């Protein structure tokens, strides 16, 4: 059996969460990541028959039975993951009943997965239904995204348009736009269901007054989506009230054309 600390997926979790902390997106225990793993790869590092304990999921995850994820722990600080992955992360497999998770590694102090597990698992189901290459769900609390969302209506077309108008990269990186949910109680199945509904259409979903979800086929895609929204929201907020130049819709369309992207319909007037 190989040493799990050397596993690429553990290295990626350590590196990514440390980066997110340094970006200022994940104060205290803010933020969480779940990453769908390849069973044969995990089998090189862990005995897949050795279930340490089972943890109820609190919802029906039947669509993910047998799937294995590495998931950040609830209450755990991103800044501490790199130095102690085995306490702050866990590797879980969705059990045959679809309502329990089998712990294969981690949560060494008796902990469990993030309180946002419903939103993560339901989002995986939604993204996999539209993109079989999907693997990562990433949630965080980036400051300018939350600030911008505070001063904008809960309207995803309007929010997306403002982002596209503020930074020429935006339409190229997220032509599919950004979904926006109203303020809701987090950590619940309800917010999970609402998030997953948006995830059928978007790779990015903002939770009003709370933060953002980014998804992707790998860490770079999920991280890069959130990073580009946050950078753009920063530009928007720094210029707020003083804006003279926004990117015209015609140029947003031409930028998308240049990169062979199709902007979400119904936003640009071209
Ligand atoms: P967890 O510590 O349970 O992951 O919660 C953090 C968070 O960001 C809640 O939305
Ligand atoms: Zn959060």
Give the topology, please:
Layout: H1 8-22, E1 32-37, H2 39-43, E2 53-56, E3 68-72, H3 78-81, H4 85-88, E4 89-94, E5 100-106, H5 117-130, E6 136-140, H6 143-151, H7 156-166, H8 170-173, E7 179-181, H9 189-199, E8 204-207, E9 211-216, H10 219-239, H11 249-258
Parallel strand pairs: 7-8
Antiparallel strand pairs: 1-3, 1-6, 2-5, 3-4, 4-5, 6-9, 8-9
Helix pairs in contact: 5-9, 6-10, 7-10
1,3-dihydroxyacetonephosphate binds next to loops.
Structural features, described:
- It is built from eleven helices and nine strands.
- With 270 residues, it is an alpha+beta fold.
- The chain folds into two domains: 115 residues, 3-Layer(aba) Sandwich (L-fuculose-1-phosphate Aldolase), CATH 3.40.225; 125 residues, L-fuculose-1-phosphate Aldolase (3-Layer(aba) Sandwich).
- It has a nine-stranded mixed beta sheet with strand order 2-5-4-3-1-6-9-8-7, with helices on both faces.
- The structure holds 1,3-dihydroxyacetonephosphate and zinc ion.
- The site of 1,3-dihydroxyacetonephosphate has 12 residues, from loops.
Could you list some keywords that capture this structure?
alpha+beta, binds zinc ion, binds 1,3-dihydroxyacetonephosphate, about 270 residues, 9-stranded mixed β-sheet
